[in-house]
Write a structure and sequence with these properties.
The chain is of the alpha/beta class and 308 residues long. Helices cover 39% and strands 19% of the residues. The protein has 11 helices and 15 strands. Strand 1, helix 1 and strand 2 form a beta-alpha-beta unit. Helix 1 packs across helix 6 and helix 5 packs across helix 7.
């Protein structure tokens, strides 16, 4: 099976290619840079075929995918800088990448008759209430430019294709790129007290665990909408930070504050990022491990010196 993966310079795309390669599958990575620009860790993604691709260029998308003729595309590429997306000078680019770029990928998959997997987000919902969001819920009311642009991508995929997976994730952390864990540990080097939001609730997602699930899924025809985060229940960012420092053996005082008290974000964040993952088991997929276990493996893999 040949799988074309976009966004391999980011956290998830990097691990997806490595997971596919570990299974003996043919993987081709792509991103906007002229050559692979992610972490040089000696893994498969650093040496496998790579294609420079600007997904906002419709002709390039069509030409490259027609030339590669994959059996499936896993579309990880996205604008993910949530606050920067709110800036007037960035909004057109955000919609071009997350909305139009995804549409162009879907159009190419439609022409080729190949599967498509689109990685989406909890931000497509309004984040109200406390009830976990169901994967087949269509009650979309995104609060931010980022959320709206990701919803545009979802709609393009679902309107153009029948053989598609839309997988919503949240609170991602992995080796390649920046994330909350790295930020917390970096700040702990210069602060002995940190204020962390306690009223946004969700679950972290470790990219190697997610990549395993996505590889499992892409080999099937169990199409549709899914939610995928690690197991272990729903927590706040404050809970996550506290566990990071506990496992890292750092005596940092973490002060819980509300989103209003924190007050630094340009984009509105969803308070309720609880994603119901029951459909995974119902469809025969193995859920991701507990997030505390995932965090421990991540810290061990990365090493405290590299993280700080």
């Amino acid at each position: 099976m040949k799988v074309f993966v976009t966004g391999v310079g980011g956290q998830l795309g990097h691990d997806v290619v490595n997971e596919l390669a570990s299974r003996g599958m043919e993987a081709v990575g792509s991103d906007i840079a002229s050559a692979y620009s992610g972490v040089q860790d000696g893994s498969a993604v650093c040496s496998l075929p790579y294609k420079q691709l600007d997904i906002t260029n419709r002709e390039d998308v069509r030409a490259i995918l027609n030339a590669e003729r994959p059996d499936a595309v896993i579309h990880c590429a996205a604008w993910t800088a949530v606050d920067a997306a709110e800036d007037a000078e960035n909004r057109e680019k955000v919609h071009a990448i997350n909305g139009l770029g995804t549409r162009y990928i879907a159009e190419a998959c439609q022409t080729l008759g190949c599967k498509m997997m689109y990685i989406s987000t909890d931000y497509v919902f309004d984040g109200q209430g406390e009830t976990p969001w169901q994967p087949d819920c269509k009650d979309y009311t995104p609060l931010s430019v980022y959320g709206q642009s990701k919803l545009e991508g979802e709609l393009a995929v679902s309107q153009l294709l029948e053989a598609f997976f839309i997988v919503r994730i949240a609170w991602v952390f992995g080796r390649n790129g920046n994330n909350f864990v790295k930020t917390m540990l970096r700040l702990s080097e210069t602060h002995d007290t940190l204020r962390v939001v306690c009223d946004q609730i969700g679950t972290p997602t470790y990219t190697p665990d997610l990549a395993r699930l996505l590889a499992d899924m892409i080999e099937t025809d169990k199409y549709g909408y899914y939610h995928a985060t690690n197991e272990g229940g729903y927590i706040s960012w404050y809970d996550f930070a506290s566990e990071i420092f506990r496992q890292a053996g750092k005596a940092i005082k973490v002060i819980p504050v509300t989103t209003a008290e924190y007050g630094l974000s340009k984009a509105k964040r969803p308070f309720n990022s609880r994603l119901d993952k029951g459909k995974l088991k119902a469809m025969g997929f193995t859920p991701l491990p507990d997030w505390k276990d995932a965090l421990g493996r991540y810290l061990k893999e990365m090493g405290m010196q590299e993280l700080s």
